[in-house]
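2024-03-11 09:14:02 INFO worker-7 job=invfold-0412 stage=load source=structure_tokens
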């Protein structure tokens, strides 16, 4: 049974009645001007206690209508705000559909469950692995949004909708950037998101890249892991060494991932384990093929 968390009480600005009319009667933001769109964005963030400067929502054009949908930043903030933990409770394949089930538990003990599903028809190798990771991410995000009572799309669902495309909200407010607008996100939309998710590489003092949240960091980390494991120009022993060094310089982020989401931690540790298993198979293969064996 799904239990919806109670959203934090916060002071919210009075919203233009025109915005309410457009949302309630039409479910569409396209008829609003730029100022009204930004006002609604800011209002929606305050309503559920999210930081608008981290851009938790994006704007989607869906069948001629514009709607807000939650991105990775939204679910990350919700998990931190409500101290939610996630647990993968099941994985199964039904014909060509891969399904992941996730349970979300709040600090108050309330529980919600939901699923994510993707097609894996004719997929193999990296394409199959990426589909499995995507399904896991989709299940976690859908479960978090459902637990918090947010009836909106998650960005992992957007790409499966025909003819849907993202609208650049930051660009849509450029024309009114000079207009005084107290308590809006005009300034924040033009600023890069501040992040504490750096990706390090061995031998470098500066970060190789920065990422918005744990989800993006895990994706980037496992992409690098796959590159190391799949490098055909170096021996299996060298791959194992490089992977160990890559883990070592990023070890401080592992704890943050685990604290952020149990589901993401399982994805991360599972991806590293799969890479090590593949490298170890290569080590055994080199021993067998060696003329001195």
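2024-03-11 09:14:09 INFO worker-7 stage=emit residues=293
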């Amino acid at each position: 049974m799904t239990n919806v968390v109670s959203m934090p009480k916060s002071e919210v600005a009075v919203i233009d009645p025109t915005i309410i009319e457009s949302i309630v009667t039409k479910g569409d933001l396209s008829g609003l001007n730029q100022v009204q769109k930004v006002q609604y964005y800011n209002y929606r963030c305050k309503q559920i206690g999210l930081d608008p400067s981290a851009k938790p929502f994006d704007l989607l054009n869906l069948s001629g209508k514009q709607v807000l949908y939650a991105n990775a930043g939204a679910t990350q903030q919700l998990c931190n705000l409500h101290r939610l933990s996630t647990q993968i409770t099941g994985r199964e394949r039904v014909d060509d559909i891969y399904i992941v089930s996730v349970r979300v538990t709040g600090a108050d003990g309330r529980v919600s469950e939901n699923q994510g599903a993707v097609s894996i028809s004719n997929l193999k190798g990296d394409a199959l692995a990426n589909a499995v990771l995507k399904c896991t991410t989709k299940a976690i995000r859908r479960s978090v949004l459902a637990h918090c009572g947010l009836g909106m799309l998650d960005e992992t669902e957007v790409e499966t909708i025909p003819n849907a495309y993202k609208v650049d909200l930051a660009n849509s407010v450029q024309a009114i950037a000079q207009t005084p607008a107290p308590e809006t996100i005009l300034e924040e939309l033009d600023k890069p998101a501040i992040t504490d998710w750096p990706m390090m590489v061995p031998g470098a003092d500066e970060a190789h890249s920065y990422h918005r949240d744990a989800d993006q960091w895990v994706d980037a980390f496992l992409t690098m892991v796959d590159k190391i494991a799949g490098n055909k120009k170096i021996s299996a022993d060298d791959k194992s060494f490089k992977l160990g060094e890559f883990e070592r310089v990023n070890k401080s982020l592992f704890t943050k991932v685990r604290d952020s989401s149990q589901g993401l931690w399982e994805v991360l540790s599972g991806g590293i384990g799969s890479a090590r298993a593949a490298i170890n198979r290569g080590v055994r293969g080199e021993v067998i093929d060696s003329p001195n064996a």
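2024-03-11 09:14:09 INFO worker-7 stage=report msg="The beta strands are 57-62, 65-70, 85-94, 97-105, 111-119, 165-167, 197-199, 209-211."
2024-03-11 09:14:10 INFO worker-7 job finished
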